[in-house]
Specification:
This protein is of the alpha/beta class. Helices cover 25% and strands 25% of the residues. It has a five-stranded parallel β-sheet, with helices on one face. It has a five-stranded parallel β-sheet with strand order 11-18-12-13-14. A three-stranded antiparallel β-sheet has the order 6-7-8.
């Protein structure tokens, strides 16, 4: 029996396992290694700080998220022997593989910014990228009636790069509904030179921040936090004061990748951006937040990558070279407050464009606020649990479609 081993059972690893267990020949097994007993729906964390109390619905036992036939090893990976094609586990010994998928996700590195951990312990800094952090922030915001909230992205890349913007839009709405908006200052400190990385979307999102009275401090490289003075200091010695700091810390790959020598300086796995094969390691593939790819670290991206990876894993199992290509496709609903949201759809080469999604008569508007987009954002949770995560076919191409988009002349040739 040959074995496909998948390291990590987050969004990416679970989708791949559930798809491959139905597609691989019968002489193959599918094994997933992950020590966490619970699967967390991470997009739902965004709403907890603003009063949502449905955290129980954001979690499901790991065993319920994996299809019959997938073997789940509830254990921690201690190391990899790449020469012997073996995974060393904490309790269960060695696990051999014929094909390996790295879907170990990303770590939040609060420890890499001096003073940040101390500020969190003192209750003057918070996060919403973890379940416990989002719940604590819910209590902190409930008691916040006056002062400056500073949201800082320490450095890129991060999981869900639009989430910081969504937080600010929802914070504006939250304090308006409480009648406190004129007493609360919202400030966004970003290492980018604008609100987002893509010019058209950055311009629109920047205007929305300005309309909502959010001050933006660009090119801000956070160097340290002074919890006593409640100051965030940059490498160029700018200082931003705060009453509450909401931090999106540096992200990195997991320690296992560091120990195995598979990662870059932040322990993200260098993979071919089209085939998803780990560079220099035939038979090992990587996807999701664990990679160094220039695509967004988001659930939609993991889904699109999984569809491409399925074909390449089947080819590898048959002794053939990868041929399917991932184009960097990403799409994301962006909550903008007041029951509205935007939608962006783009890839490596094509930036977000206006239009309709998923086609000319699609219900969702691109780069424009609408209540339908907000409804789509909320409905995505059901689709996640019942369609995307189980690996069921979803009628959306893994590759970017230009159908329904108003195409600038500069990219019109791509529609041919």
């Amino acid at each position: 029996m040959k074995n496909l081993v998948i390291l990590g059972a987050g969004t990416a690893g679970t989708i791949v396992a559930n798809r491959m267990v139905r597609k691989l020949p019968r002489d193959w097994s599918v094994t997933v290694v992950d020590p966490a007993p619970v699967h967390l729906y991470q997009p739902g964390l965004l709403f907890l700080p603003f009063g949502a109390r449905d955290e129980a619905a954001l979690q499901r036992p790991r065993g319920r998220t994996l299809r019959d036939g997938v073997e789940w090893v509830e254990d921690r990976v201690e190391g990899l022997d790449l020469d012997r094609r073996s995974v060393r586990l904490s309790a269960a010994g060695a696990l051999g593989y014929d094909l390996l998928v790295v879907a170990t996700g990303a770590r939040l590195r609060f420890d890499l910014t001096p003073g940040l951990d101390e500020a969190r312990s003192a209750g003057v800094a918070a996060d919403f990228y973890t379940l416990e952090g989002a719940k604590r922030l819910r209590d902190q915001l409930a008691g916040f009636e006056e002062g400056r909230i500073l949201l800082n992205v320490v450095e890129m890349p991060i999981k869900c790069p639009v989430a910081p913007l969504e937080f600010l839009f929802l914070a504006d709405d939250y304090f308006r509904r409480r009648g406190l908006r004129d007493r609360v200052e919202l400030v966004y400190a970003t290492p980018l030179d604008g609100a987002f990385t893509r010019p058209l979307a950055a311009s629109l999102l920047g205007r929305l921040l300005a309309e909502k009275g959010v001050k933006v401090e660009t090119d801000f490289g956070a160097a340290e936090v002074d919890p006593g003075r409640r100051v965030l200091r940059s490498y160029d010695e700018r200082e931003l004061s705060f009453d509450l700091l909401v931090s999106i810390p540096t992200h990195s790959g997991v320690e296992l990748i560091e120990r195995a020598g598979l990662g870059n300086e932040l322990a993200f796995v260098p993979a071919d951006k089209k085939s998803l094969e780990v560079k220099g390691h035939p038979g090992i593939f990587a996807l999701g937040d664990a990679t160094d790819l220039p695509s967004s670290k988001a659930g939609s991206v993991a889904h699109f990558q999984a569809e491409v990876l399925e074909e390449n894993l089947l080819r590898a199992a048959a002794g053939e070279s990868p041929s399917a290509t991932f184009d960097g496709h990403a799409n994301c609903f962006i909550e903008s407050g007041d029951g509205k949201a935007l939608l962006i759809d783009f890839n490596y080469e094509v930036e977000p464009m206006p239009g309709r999604f998923p086609g000319p008569v699609g219900p969702f508007s691109l780069l424009r606020e609408s209540r339908m987009n907000h409804a789509g954002k909320l409905a995505f949770r059901w689709l996640y649990w019942n369609g995307l995560l189980p690996g069921r076919p979803i009628p959306l191409s893994s590759h970017l479609s230009l159908s329904g988009k108003r195409i600038p002349a500069a990219v019109a040739h791509l529609a041919q």
